[in-house]
Design a protein that fits this description.
Distance between the termini: 66 Å
Structural class: alpha/beta
Order of helices and strands: HEEHHEHEHEEHEHHEE
Strand order of the largest sheet: 5-4-3-6-7-9-8
Shape: globular
Number of strands: 9
Oligomer: single chain
Largest sheet: 7 strands, mixed
Strand content: 15-25%
Length: 233
């Protein structure tokens, strides 16, 4: 039996689509406001292959059973849940995001006892020192105000344990896709120039990370991984 949408459901769906995808917070950067629009955008941008990309993030992050994993700027929480599946019930998967809307939605939908969602910006994480074994931050850095990106990287260093692994990723479309999106957005030049995750190589090294490695994913994404050196005894 097919359920007919009630007027209130239709109004809610319409309002969700009209809600802007992001709002610009002067102190934090771009914050997700419209989760439904964001999910639609990612489905189109990744041509339905977002799940495959999430699996690649998990693999390259080094998450394994029992790990404590953090996803910074978790948005709709898909990577948190993918990390949670990898670390299992003996581990932990935490998502942090400045959007109270996103955190409330994830907390209501995600019942896994080893998953947790917290409100907070990347540049001031409400988390303990050396709390995590694995850390991911995907499609987020270019949303943070330029003046606060060094602070965000310093916070990643602080909450990652010695020997832990960091994964940063952002959009890196093919030249053809860049040209299409440039016309669509009505901008000259490369609309994704600021998203190149390689911009942060020097900053990541400067704070102390080592073993940096860049990978161009087949799913229009650049991935940068690094290690926090193990403590010397």
């Amino acid at each position: 039996m097919t359920r007919t949408a009630a007027p209130d459901d239709e109004l809610m769906s319409r309002n969700q689509l009209l809600t802007p995808m992001f709002v610009d917070d002067a102190g934090t950067g771009l914050v997700i406001a419209g989760l439904r629009r964001y999910n639609l955008f990612t489905a189109v941008f990744f041509l339905g292959r977002h799940r495959r990309l999430l699996a690649e993030f998990v693999t390259r992050s080094g998450a394994r059973p029992g790990s404590r994993a953090l996803d910074i700027g978790c948005g709709p929480g898909k990577l948190v849940r993918a990390l949670g599946a990898a670390v299992g019930p003996n581990g932990a998967a935490v998502g942090v995001d400045p959007s109270a809307t996103a955190v409330a939605d994830n907390s209501a939908r995600d019942r896994a006892t080893h998953h947790r969602y917290v409100v907070g910006p990347a540049q001031s994480l409400p988390l303990s020192d050396a709390e995590f074994d694995v850390m991911t931050c995907t499609f987020v850095m270019h949303h943070i105000p330029e003046s606060q990106r060094d602070a965000a990287i310093a916070e990643m260093w602080r909450v990652l344990r010695p020997g832990g692994r960091l994964l940063l990723a952002d959009a890196s479309p093919t030249p053809r896709m860049r040209a299409v999106l440039s016309r669509f957005l009505g901008r000259g030049g490369d609309p994704f120039a600021d998203a190149d995750i390689r911009h942060y190589t020097d900053r990541v090294e400067a704070v102390g990370f080592t073993d940096l490695s860049y990978t161009q994913s087949r799913d229009q994404t650049g991935i940068l991984t690094a290690l926090k050196p193990a403590a010397h005894h």
